[in-house]
Structure formats: structure tokens, C-alpha cells
What does this fold into?
Amino acid sequence: MKDLFGKAILDYQTNNNPEDIITETSISEADEMSVAYLFRNFTKMPKLEQKALQLTKGKTLDVGCGAGSHALYLQNEIKLEVTAIDISENAIKTCQLRGLKNAEVVNVLDLDTSEKFDTIILLMNGTGIFGKLDQITTYLQKLKSLLNEGGQILIDSSDIIYMFDQDEDGAYAINGNGYYGELTFTIQYKGETEETFDWLYLDYNTLQNAAIANDLECELVIEGEHFDYLARLTN
It folds into this structure.
């Protein structure tokens, strides 16, 4: 991977002529995303993310931390012990430059389960890292193994059924191959095109069913304004 997301984040942090990131998915046209959005403070975050941070307690793991805005708020304002992880080396470098004490380049699936957490957060479509529907169990079992007794997983996603056309009977025109929330993303930054990667959006019922199948309780905490939601998973 060229780590274009990470490059954009580090460029913004170091004032190295950052540009917008161009994202395109298998069901949508190319769109521009401002890197500055990834550096937003608590007051600029959507209510759904604010709620997740308000519910966070104890020793915390931030999975897919990006520029580290969530972890920094928890570390500096709530005074929690936070570990932030991401597969992007440049993103983690940015987190360290911003003052995060514990930030490392690692895939959550590779984490040592000897270290446990009271809260694990996966935000900004946290289900995205699952990639495909058939990978949910792998990730949920790993996340579950990292929880302390009484711990919680706070994760958000969106039901993207609204992005598909409906016929006169109200049925959605969905490609018959696979689950409709399985998308492929392509990122461009400063003229470079990164390889396409899988990204999963989950409707709440599908997440709840997967949680139950993996012996986790699933609670709908709050719904956002754009078909998004925050869920809490517990043992």
C-alpha cells in the first residue's frame, strides 16, 4: 500500500502542502474529502462520535485511529489511558507528533491478547475494517478477546440501502452478488492512485445478528442524521 491516507494526514500535520483526498466507491462517483476534517476537535465531531467518547471509560483501545483526534480527546480531556493503533505508519507518526503517548502501527488482528481493555472504540464507520461480511466473526472474536470483564466495544456504521434506487413497489435495485454494504474504495492523493480496498458498511440488524452469533450483546445507543448509528457490544 502507498498509504495515501496517511501521507495526507502527515502532510496536514507538518504543513507540507496538503490537498484534498479524492475517494471513489463501487457505487458512487469520485468525491473530495478535506484532510482537515480528520483533525476536528470534540465540538466539531458528529453527535454520534461525541456520544461514543462520552461513554468511553477505563483503559481504552482506539482501533483505526487515523489522525488521533478521538484518542487525543480521551487522553487529554478525559484523562484516560489510551492506546491508538492503525495500519498506517504515517498516521501513527502524526498521532505521535500531536502528543499521543501510546500509538503504534499494528493490525488489530495481530494484537497480543494478554493486554486487555475496558473500552474498544472503532469510529468513522468502524465496521469498515471488517472488509467483507464473512470477516465479521474473525474481527468480533478478536475484539472480544481483548476485552476486560465488563468491557465494551463502541462501534459505528451506516445502513447504505438508501444509496440504491427503488422501483415503484419500493424494492431496492441491488446487485445480487454479496451483501449491499460491501464496497470497494479507491483513493487518490496528489495525483497518486492507491489500490482499491474493501470497506464494509453494516445495517444495525446485521451487526446485531453477528454479535449474537459471537456471544456478544448488542445495544443500539444512538442513531445519527444520515442513516448512521452507534452500537455498544458487551460480553
